[in-house]
């Protein structure tokens, strides 16, 4: 592998840590969540602030090298390391400030902050933002909306391909604002800071958990019917997730209200689901306590100071619209899970609320979704990579063709997805390409500006998806 000469970078980057493949620390620093794939960067560069990011980008331009940035290290296909060997990785570990303005109800959050720390610091000030459940995901790659409050990012700071800092909001660089809010994925520059609208935490929320008979197909149909029919009509403060694998079937959820109000709000749904196999849980908690519970972290320390638990996995995603999965689709899915040679979990995230409200300032195309399915195959050893990846890829292709919409969710990035332009970006793909051409001008001459995927691999800058 051809490496950049060390003295070339040292001359340009004397002001912050630079780690090379011959450093004893290097191997441990390029291992993150998914060890199914791995790549070897030319160098790891650790930035402290915007000025460092600017210097690194200008260095990459001068050296005619590709540069990617890494936030949480959760990219399913390792795009946080460039998605291939021999790129400069700009790690944002130290771009981790959080400034809360209680009066304006906003928070400026550095791109490297992980969700566990974000939730913790906002909670101490009495606020929350709509986000996910995994504490170790970096906010930079995750900044998409939740059910009740929707996409909450008001503005961003981004370093473009010329190494210039741009302020991005609904007025300044509005076209870039549109692209980043829903189709960012790191393709347009390195976002270093986000300004979020934050929301007062309710005095009490209710965590919900229900388990059902996985072996009874009639009851599985009944649960899906309730999820399809009643789920979308819930109060916007309710979030529900269904999980299905070879041995279990469950619903977990959260309502931003006390237990009595939760039971009342869930009454119709509960009247339609099959009899649970254990006593349903409706547990009053604080909002932060509910995050601790839903995160499934082994201890409270790891919620705030999350670490990766590397494993081999491959994920697919499907966006379901209309009336939901049919009985035939459910049976095909259940039969596949029963017969799969690798361990596979299907998760169903119910949409609704702000997530289904059209927003002309956002490039998120899945506004009319009923729910999103994530299927993840996990295995124990590298020699199973091909078998398990091929198994879920083949099923996913046929399942999407026959039973779901043609859309997939870009945060569950999938390198093997066909027609990714349509599945991730729909009919706005052409608009996104034009925006990309406007803001990303330093391209490798090997590839012309013909599409976002080529940009993803050969562009001067690529921001980690998760």
UniProtKB/TrEMBL annotation:
What SUPFAM superfamilies does UniProt report for this protein, alphabetically?
FAD-binding/transporter-associated domain-like (SSF56176)
Q: Where is the FAD-binding PCMH-type domain?
A: 37-201
What range does the record give for the signal peptide?
1-21
Its needed co-factors are: FAD
The UniProt keyword set, sorted, is:
FAD, Flavoprotein, Oxidoreductase, Signal
The cross-references to Pfam families, in alphabetical order and at most eight, read: BBE (PF08031), FAD_binding_4 (PF01565)
The entry's family comment says: Belongs to the oxygen-dependent FAD-linked oxidoreductase family.
Question: What protein name is recorded for this chain?
Answer: Glucooligosaccharide oxidase
């Amino acid at each position: 592998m051809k490496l950049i000469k060390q003295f070339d970078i040292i001359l340009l980057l004397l002001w912050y840590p630079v780690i090379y493949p011959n450093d004893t620390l290097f191997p441990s620093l390029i291992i993150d969540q998914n060890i199914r794939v791995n790549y070897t960067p030319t160098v790891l560069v650790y930035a402290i602030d915007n000025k460092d990011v600017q210097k690194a980008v200008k260095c990459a331009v001068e050296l005619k090298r590709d540069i990617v940035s890494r936030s949480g290290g959760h990219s399913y296909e390792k795009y946080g390391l460039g998605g291939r060997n021999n790129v400069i990785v700009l790690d944002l570990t130290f771009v981790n400030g959080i400034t809360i303005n209680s009066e304006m109800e906003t928070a400026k959050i550095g791109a490297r902050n992980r969700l566990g720390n974000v939730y913790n610091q906002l909670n101490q000030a009495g606020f929350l933002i709509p986000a996910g459940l995994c504490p170790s995901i970096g906010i930079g790659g995750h900044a998409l909306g939740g059910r009740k409050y929707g996409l909450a990012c008001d503005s961003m700071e981004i370093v473009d391909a010329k190494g210039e800092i741009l302020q991005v909001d609904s007025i300044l660089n509005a076209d870039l604002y549109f692209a980043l809010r829903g189709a960012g994925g790191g393709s347009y520059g390195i976002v270093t800071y986000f300004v979020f609208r934050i929301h007062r935490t309710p005095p009490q929320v209710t965590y919900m958990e229900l388990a059902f008979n996985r072996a009874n197909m009639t009851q599985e149909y009944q649960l899906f019917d309730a999820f399809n029919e009643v789920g979308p009509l819930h109060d916007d403060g309710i979030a529900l997730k269904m999980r299905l694998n070879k041995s279990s079937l469950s619903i977990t959820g959260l309502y931003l209200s006390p237990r009595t109000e939760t039971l009342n709000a869930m009454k119709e749904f509960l009247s339609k689901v099959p009899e649970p196999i254990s006593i349903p849980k409706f547990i009053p908690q604080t909002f932060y306590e509910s995050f601790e519970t839903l995160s499934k972290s082994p201890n409270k320390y790891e919620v705030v100071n999350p670490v990766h638990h590397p494993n081999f996995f491959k994920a697919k995603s499907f966006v379901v619209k209309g009336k939901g999965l049919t009985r035939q689709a459910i049976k095909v899915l259940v039969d596949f899970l029963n017969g799969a040679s690798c361990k596979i979990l299907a998760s169903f995230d119910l949409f609704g609320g702000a997530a289904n409200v059209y927003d002309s300032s956002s490039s998120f195309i899945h506004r009319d979704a009923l729910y999103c399915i994530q299927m993840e195959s996990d295995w124990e050893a590298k020699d199973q990579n091909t078998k398990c990846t091929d198994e879920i890829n083949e099923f996913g292709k046929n399942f999407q063709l026959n039973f779901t919409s043609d859309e997939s969710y870009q945060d569950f990035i999938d390198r093997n997805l066909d027609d990714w332009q349509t599945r991730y970006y729909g009919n706005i793909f052409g608009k996104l390409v034009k925006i990309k051409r406007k803001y990303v001008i330093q391209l490798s001459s090997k590839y012309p500006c013909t599409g976002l995927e080529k940009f993803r691999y050969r562009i001067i800058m690529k921001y980690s998806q998760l």
